[in-house]
Specification:
- The protein is an alpha+beta fold.
- The protein has one domain: Cytochrome-c3 Hydrogenase, chain B (Orthogonal Bundle).
- It is 41% helix and 18% strand.
- Strands 3-2-1-15 form a 4-stranded antiparallel sheet, with helices on one face. A 4-stranded mixed sheet has the order 8-7-6-11. The protein has a 3-stranded antiparallel sheet with strand order 12-13-14.
- A hairpin with a 2-residue loop joins strand 4 and strand 5.
- Helix 4 runs antiparallel to helix 5 and helix 4 runs antiparallel to helix 10.
- It is globular and about 70 Å long.
- The protein starts with 5 loop residues before the first strand and ends with a strand.
C-alpha cells in the first residue's frame, strides 16, 4: 500500500464525451481530496437565448450538443408547449417517443461499444481489438446505423433534426419508410442482446449506496411522468426547482446539484432501479435474468441498464412502426405572451431540465437549463473518495485506470469530443 504522499492528475479523461480532468491528492495513505474538473462547460447558452423569439429556440438549443441534440430539441419544445398551453396530439407524442428511442439507441451504442467494451476486454481502445473482437465494432456500426435511421425517419436527419415543431411535426414518415427502418431495427436486435449479455457477465463492480432520481412514467418513454427518487420522494415536473440545490464548485466550469441537500445519481441505472416493470413485454421476457440485478447500487450496472434500454427502444419502435400509419396534421401556431413553462425528460445520461420564461412579445426573458452530467459530478466525486482507499496497494497506473473506468460507467457528456489518455504524475 502507498503510505507516502502522491498526486494523480488525469488530464484529459479518455473515452468520454468532452473534456474534463481528475485531481487526486493522497497524504500518508489517506485521500485528502478528489476533484472532478469540468473545464469546457461554461458556454453561456442559457444567456445566449435571451432576447430571441421562442419559435427559434428549439433549433438553437439542439446545437448545444451534437450527441444529445434530440433531447435538447424535445425538452425545449415541451417547455414552450407547457408555457403556451399547447396540447400535442397523440400522434405527435408517439413521434416524439420514437425520436427519443432513436437518440438512445445510437447514443448508448456509441458509448457501450466504442468507449466501454475496451474495458471489458482489457484493451486501451477498439483499435487494439483482435480479429475476433473486431466483430463487436461491426455490430456497433450496424446498431448505431439503426438508431440513426430511426432518428432520420422522424426528424429528417440523425443530428439537429429539422421536422420537430412546437405542437407537431413539419413532416411525418410514410409507411414504406417505416418498413425500411423496422427491418434495420429487427436486424440490430440480436446484436443488442449479445451486448446485454457481455455487460451482464463483466467481472468487475463498484457498489456505493446513493439516492437515485429519474422521471418515471408508465411506459418507459423517456418523456413523461413525475420526478421520483429511491428515497420515496415524488414531485411534479413544474416543481423541480424547489428540490434541486445548486452547488458552486470553484474548480469546475459547471455548477453541481444536490437533491434536497443530498448527493444523487441520474441516468439509466436510476431509471432501471425504479421503472423496470414499464419496459416492453418482449424486453422483459428476453432480459429476465439480467433484470434480476435491479434495483442495484453497482455503478457499473449503469452500462447494463443502458444496454437493456436499447432493446426496449427497438421493441417499442417496432411495435409503433408496424401498427401505425401517420398523417400530416395542421401546424400549430401559438402566439407569444408573458408566461413560463418547464420541460423535463430523460436524456440518455439522465434527467434534463428546461425552464423558459417569455415576455409579452414572445421573446425569451429568462432560461434555466440543467444537464445530467452537471447533476452527476458531485456523486462521481463521492464515488472516487470511496473507491480509492481500498486500491491504494495498486500501482498509480492501475489506480488511474480504475478511476477512468468508473467515470466511463457514468457516460458523462461534458461536450461532444473524446480523447485518448494522457496522465501527468506529480
Amino acid at each position: 500500500m502507498h503510505q507516502g504522499d502522491f498526486d494523480i492528475i488525469i488530464d484529459p479523461i479518455s473515452k468520454i464525451e468532452g473534456h474534463a480532468e481528475v485531481d487526486v491528492r493522497v497524504r500518508k495513505g489517506e485521500v485528502e481530496y478528489v476533484k472532478l474538473k469540468i473545464n469546457e462547460n461554461k458556454r453561456f447558452y442559457s444567456v445566449a437565448v435571451r432576447g430571441k423569439h421562442f419559435n427559434s429556440i428549439p433549433q438553437l438549443v439542439s446545437r448545444i450538443c451534437g450527441t444529445c441534440s434530440i433531447a435538447h430539441l424535445n425538452c425545449s419544445i415541451e417547455a414552450f408547449e407547457k408555457a403556451l398551453n399547447v396540447q400535442p396530439s397523440e400522434q405527435t407524442l408517439l413521434l416524439r417517443k420514437l425520436s427519443m428511442y432513436g437518440l438512445n439507441l445510437r447514443d448508448h451504442a456509441m458509448h457501450l461499444y466504442l468507449f466501454c467494451l475496451p474495458d471489458i476486454f482489457g484493451k486501451d481502445s477498439v483499435l487494439d481489438f483482435n480479429e475476433k473482437e473486431h466483430e463487436w465494432v461491426m455490430d456497433a456500426f450496424e446498431v448505431k446505423a439503426a438508431g440513426n435511421a430511426l432518428s432520420t425517419l422522424i426528424l429528417g436527419r440523425a443530428v439537429h433534426g429539422m421536422f420537430a415543431l412546437i405542437g407537431g411535426y413539419a413532416k411525418v414518415p410514410t409507411k414504406e419508410q417505416q418498413k425500411e427502418v423496422v427491418e434495420k431495427l429487427k436486424s440490430a436486435r440480436p446484436k443488442v442482446l449479445k451486448l446485454i449479455e457481455i455487460f451482464y457477465q463483466r467481472d468487475f463492480s463498484f457498489k456505493r449506496k446513493t439516492n437515485h432520481v429519474a422521471l418515471i412514467s408508465k411506459d418507459y418513454s423517456f418523456l413523461e411522468g413525475e420526478i421520483q427518487s429511491t428515497e420515496g420522494i415524488c414531485i411534479p415536473e413544474a416543481h423541480y426547482w424547489e428540490h434541486l440545490w445548486r452547488v458552486i464548485i470553484p474548480y469546475s466550469q459547471s455548477v453541481g446539484y444536490q437533491f434536497e441537500g443530498k448527493n444523487y445519481m441520474v441516468g439509466a441505472l436510476s431509471r432501471m432501479n425504479m421503472n423496470k416493470a414499464a419496459l416492453m413485454p418482449e424486453t422483459r421476457r428476453d432480459c429476465a435474468e439480467y433484470l434480476s440485478e435491479f434495483p442495484s447500487d453497482d455503478i457499473y450496472n449503469n452500462n447494463l441498464a443502458q444496454a437493456i434500454e436499447m432493446l426496449h427502444c427497438i421493441d417499442h419502435s417496432i411495435e409503433i412502426l408496424e401498427t401505425l400509419e401517420f398523417s400530416q396534421e395542421p401546424k400549430v401556431l401559438p402566439e407569444g405572451r408573458e408566461t413560463k413553462g418547464v420541460g423535463v425528460l430523460e436524456a440518455p445520461r439522465g434527467t434534463l431540465y428546461y425552464m423558459m420564461e417569455l415576455d409579452g412579445s414572445g421573446m425569451i426573458s429568462y432560461a434555466d437549463i440543467i444537464t445530467p452530467s452537471q447533476q452527476n459530478q458531485i456523486n462521481m466525486e463521492a464515488d472516487f473518495r470511496t473507491m480509492i482507499p481500498p486500491i491504494l496497494d495498486k500501482s498509480k497506473e492501475e489506480i488511474t485506470f480504475e478511476l477512468e473506468k468508473l467515470i466511463r460507467a457514468y457516460d458523462p457528456c461534458f461536450s461532444c469530443a473524446s480523447h485518448f489518455l494522457k496522465v501527468n504524475w506529480l
